Amino acid sequence: MEPKEIVLAAYQAANNGQYAKANGCLSPEFRKELTRTQSLGVAAGRSLRRNLLKPESRRSDAAAHCRKMLREISECMKTIADMKLGSAKSLKALWNMATRNRNLVKIEATRQVIRNSRARVYLRLTLRDGSVVKDSEPLVFLRGKWFLG
Description:
Blueprint: H1 3-15, H2 19-23, H3 28-53, H4 61-82, H5 88-98, E1 104-115, E2 118-127, E3 132-142, E4 145-148
Antiparallel strand pairs: 1-2, 2-3, 3-4
Helix pairs in contact: 3-4
């Protein structure tokens, strides 16, 4: 199958709520990277929170400001950690974003560019309200097949 056929099939499946079928079009490396990113984020967040609990050595305004910023970053990292990247739930959320909450009426591949083992498919998505959105998806060629990611 050509890259554009893979993208169209994945989007159509996700738009119809067939997330397992759509996930089958994702590269295994993409899913591994999501899981790896999740675990790195969790570890970094723990480390950051541990360091914030240490006794405050400096009590200057600049140090207080830095600690406040670090606390805000820590909260953001906790939110990301709670997403459980790579899980079925997070992949469903990603597909819902891609399909604009399953509001696609028409999915067209306007162009595909293939360079060696990489490709990019450009899309024209028509939504239920009549608006048109342009998007693109990267693909990779692995073990004789094209995958999203």
